[in-house]
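job 3f2a | input accepted
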Amino acid sequence: MSLHPIAHAQNRPDQAAVIMASSGETMTYGEMEGQANQFAHLLRARGVNPDQAFAVLLENRMEYFTIIWGSQRAGTMLVPISTRLTGPEIAYILQDSETKLLITSGAFADVLETVRAECPDLDMLIMDSGDAQEFGAAMSVQSTEPLAEQTAGLVMLYSSGTTGRPKGVRPAPPEDPDPQAPNPLMALGMMGAGMPADGSMIYLSPAPLYHAAPIGWCSTVHRLGGTIVLMEKFDPENALAAIEKYKITDSQWVPTHFVRFLKLDEQTRSKYDLSSHQRALHAAAPCPVPIKREMIEWWGPIVNEYYAGSEGIGMTLVKAPDWLTHPGSVGRAIHGKLHVCDPDGEEVGPDEDGLIYFENDILPTYHNDPDKTAEAMHPKGWMTLGDIGHVDADGFLYLTDRKSHMIISGGVNIYPQEVENLLQTHAKVMDAAVIGAPCPDLGEKVVAVVQPVDMGDSGEALEAELREFLAPNLARIKMPKLFDFRPDLPREANGKLYKRELRDEYEAKAKAGAA
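job 3f2a | predicted structure (515 res):
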């Protein structure tokens, strides 16, 4: 039997494919099948042919899945766009990906003016617009029957731009063009994460669908015949309420979600029934050891972690029991083969830090950027995501930090992740980013940009408290020279910090001061 929404629509058309967490609005597999076919016909009608790109700029809403599965029958390249980007950033991605059609909604009217100005010839369909470009009207005239010739589509995700302009990760073409052919994430979901394929899975997705993990895992849940409960926006108490209300069995998180869960008071944390919850995956950013330990104590040994990237070149996985004996690890490789190399490309021994590579038969390229593709490659054909780490004698991988985040202060290499992890465990800290800022004496100085739980606490007293808190566990060279308190940080909903924005800000201040 095929594991695909097409087959599930035939075998159990009335099963819920998607439920919106706040409203309870539901789309069945039968309904999703008809709408996906309509969207595939719509793509053809608007001149988007196989291997050509169309883009999606949408909030979390049910139609996202119509679009995903329609593209998967039409053989097209879906380009999800982050909803936090500015008009010029969106226009850059549309132009770089050679997008033929943009699907968006009235929620983005403010940035669409810029997009129209910079991409005047771009075809556009807008949900909730009520005008000639209305998505619903264009869909309503399309057939619900399948395309005569269906072929698997692809997703081109753009990097989050944490170190420069975002780059499209262009996946290798599928080995089998049949839309119902299995893919690697299905096997990783079942054999690695333990996801069931019998239709019993009820999966909570709290993050924006334009990110790699939500779009990838949600698609896998649908292939396995599960039900997705989609949160419009993450809120810690609302997430706990959804687990109880919908009897969630599986979920996917990032460490910032865990931090926000743990900032809830004990009464709120304990009032929801979480007994249905069997598997809680997390990834996308390093999780401080004390934070994860608290989550395992609260939720039980169901908190499982993986390390991967939009590039899809490899994956590691560690389940809670193994993590407890290897705290801080992101697990052993379950897809691709790990290699850790020094700056000369030579492999290093156990417990020695180096650049992490994955060896894999199928590798992507960076769209329109052969230099970036070449920079990510090892002479032996392995590929890196740009992370530094080490593997222990048992084969468990530990992440140290991203190569691009390293601070060089007074000639000493400092990895800010260590400082950030410590700061995030302090009761008065909601979030923290540690960066290197220009310094005439040291080259770079360590700056901690901190989001307090209560901005009323910010000031000299909290700075002194944090310095005292850090001192026993931090070498003096790593101690922040400056604490900058802010009401929020430029963090993506997938847990990634836009450190580039903070670094650029401090570089501009340094230049202005020197002028």
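job 3f2a | The two ends are 70 Å apart (CA to CA).
job 3f2a | closed
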